[in-house]
Amino acid sequence: IPAPHQILNALLVALCVAGGSATAQAPAAPGAGPGSVRSVDAAALVARAEDQLRREDPLGARASFRALREIEPEGVAAWVGLGRVELLLGRPEVAVGYADRALDLDASDDAATALRIRALIRARRFQDAVTYSARASSQPRSGVEVLAAHASALFRTQQNDDARACYEQVVAREPLHAE
Length: 179
Known about the structure:
Layout: H1 4-18, H2 22-25, H3 37-54, H4 58-71, H5 76-88, H6 92-105, H7 110-122, H8 126-137, H9 144-156, H10 160-173
Helix pairs in contact: 1-4, 3-4, 3-5, 4-5, 5-6, 5-7, 6-7, 7-8, 7-9, 8-9, 9-10
């Protein structure tokens, strides 16, 4: 029997997908930006999905990210979120596909780039991960998550000195980083 919060989440997602929410159906007004009803609805879905991931509820998170994808099909967050869910479910090759879709939408997105690297690692495609992450982490715009994923790829291929140097950069940029 599902827990009450799982039932509530499923009902909320079903309402959004089925059109029970006016904000899920209504297109955003031209030029609608932060603060529009549609962006608030999307932000609520992202927050709920992130909470579900933290609670290790991948099926709930998948439903929330799918609802987000219905609202914002060209939004990177839904595709990255779905990829993260697939990693949690042990399906790294599917996660690579979601990362690639997100990168098709925004090739400079750090979360999508880091997801792709981590999915390649989980798929045991270590050399692909190192090759891709070396290129991605050398870009001036790459963030700490890309650098941490690159360090992880280097570590998996026993390039320990290079991995250590990368991890030092991660800690220098973000001292409390999870890595």
